[in-house]
Amino acid sequence: xxxxxxxxxxxxxxxxxxxxxxxxxxxxxxxxxxxxxxxxxxxxxxxxxxxxxxxxxxxxxxxxxxxxxxxxxxxxxxxxxxxxxxxxxxxxxxxxxxxxxxxxxxxxxxxxxxxxxxxxxxxxxxxxxxxxxxxxxxxxxxxxxxxxxxxxxxxxxxxxxxxxxxxxxxxxxxxxxxxxxxxxxxxxxxxxxxxxxxxxxxxxxxxxxxxxxxxxxxxxxxxxxxxxxxxxxxxxxxxxxxxxxxxxxxxxxxxxxxxxxxxxxxxxxxxxxxxxxxxxxxxxxxxxxxxxxxxxxxxxxxxxxxxxxxxxxxxxxxxxxxxxxxxxxxxxxxxxxxxxxxxxxxxxxxxxxxxxxxxxxxxxxxxxxxxxxxxxxxxxxxxxxxxxxxxxxxxxxxxxxxxxxxxxxxxxxxxxxxxxxxxxxxxxxxxxxxxxxxxxxxxxxxxxxxxxxxxxxxxxxxxxxxxxxxxxxxxxxxxxxxxxxxxxxxxxxxxxxxxxxxxxxxxxxxxxx
Length: 513
Known about the structure:
Layout: H1 3-32, H2 36-74, H3 77-104, H4 106-113, H5 121-134, H6 137-153, H7 158-176, H8 184-210, H9 223-254, H10 260-295, H11 299-326, H12 328-336, H13 343-358, H14 360-375, H15 381-404, H16 407-427, H17 438-464, H18 466-471, H19 474-498, H20 504-511
Helix pairs in contact: 1-7, 1-10, 2-3, 2-5, 2-6, 2-8, 2-9, 2-10, 3-6, 4-5, 5-8, 6-7, 6-8, 7-8, 9-15, 10-11, 10-13, 10-14, 11-13, 11-14, 11-17, 12-13, 12-19, 13-16, 14-16, 15-16, 17-19
C-alpha cells in the first residue's frame, strides 16, 4: 500500500474517532463540567492511558512492529505469527501481575501523580476509587495494541485506526446512563473497561480474519523476546519521559485552583484533533513501510517516504495550528459552553488552547523524526532528546504558571516541542533517509505562505462574527463556526492549489497501488 493511501485510511478512521470523541467531550463538559469530580476522573483516565502509551503503543510497538515486519519479509508469515503469539502471552502475563499490584497500591500512586489532592479529601478519595475502576483497561487495550501492530504490518491499517471509535461510543453510552451511577465520574470510569473489552474483541476478530492464528501457551523469554526487551528499555524510558510531561502537568495543576486539570483536558482535546489525525496517521503508516525500505536497503524509497511524510504533516498541521491560535475562544464557546461548563471556563480553556497550539506543528513533525530513528532500531537517541525536553518542560511550566496560571503549563509544553524539533533535526543530519529533498524545501515555503493567508482570513471573519457567537442560540453558534471553518478551508485549499503544492499527478502516484 502506498504511503498516502495508508495515511488517508488511518486519518479517515482517526477523524471518525475524533468526531465521536468530540461528541463525548461535549457531553462530558455538559454533564461533568470542570469541578472536583471532573478533576478526579481525568486523573483516573490518564493513568491507564499513560502506561498504555508508554508500553503497548509506545515502546513495545516501536520495537515489535519493525521486528514483525522483518520476519514476514525475510522469513515467513508463519514464523512471524509464532513471534506475535509469544509476544501476546508475555504481555498478558506481565500486565496481569502489574495491574493487580497497581490496584493494591493505588492510594500511593495517586499521592505521587496528584499530590495537590492530599489537601482535598473529596478529590483524593474519588481519584483513588475511580482509578481502581479504570485501571483494568490497561491490559485489554495493550493486547489490542499488539494486534493492531500486527494488522498494520500487514498493511491493514483501518481496524486499529477504527478501534478508538468503540472507546468513544462506550463512554458516550456511560454518560447517557449516568443517572444509574453514584456520579457521572463513576459512570464514565466504568465505561473504560467496557471499552477495552469492545476494542480487544474487535481487533482479535480482525486479526483472525487477516490470517493471524494466535497460539495460546506458556510465555517464553526466547532470543526474540530478549531482543524486544533489550530494545524496549531505552524506548520505555523515552516514551515514559515524554508522558512524564503529562503527569508533571497534572502534578503542577493539582496545586492550582479547582478545575485546572479539567481546563488542560478540554484544551488538549482540541489540540489533539490535528495531532491525533495527522500524527497517528503518519506514524502508523510510515513505521512498517520505512522499516521494510531500510531492510531492503532502498535509500531512495526511504528518503522519499520521509520527505513526503513531513510534507503531508506540514500541509495539514500548520493551518490547524494557526486556526487554533486565532480562534480558541470561539471553539471553546461553541463546542463546550453549556450545562456545567460556563463562560469563565471557556475563557480560561481558550488561553490554554492557544498556548498548546504554538507547539502543534513541532509535535507532529517529531512523529516523523522519531519513526526514522525507530525504523533503524535506534531507540536511544529519542530517549536523550526526551530527557532534555522533559527537564525544560517542567522548569518552564513551574516558572510560567507564576505569571499566566494554568496556561503556563500548556505554553511550556508548546515551547518544548520546538526544542525537540531542533534536537531531532541535528540528530538525523547524517541519516541518509532523513535528508530534506528539493521538493520538500520548496513546498514548505509555499505551505507556510498559504497558511498565513488562511490565518488572516479566519481572524477577520471570526472577529466579525463574535457578537453572533457570544449571544446567538446554539444553532446560530454552530452555523457561524462551520462557516468560519469552511471559509478557512476553502481559502487554504485555493492558496495551496494555486501555488501547486498539491498536484493531481502526485495524489495518483502516492494513493494508487
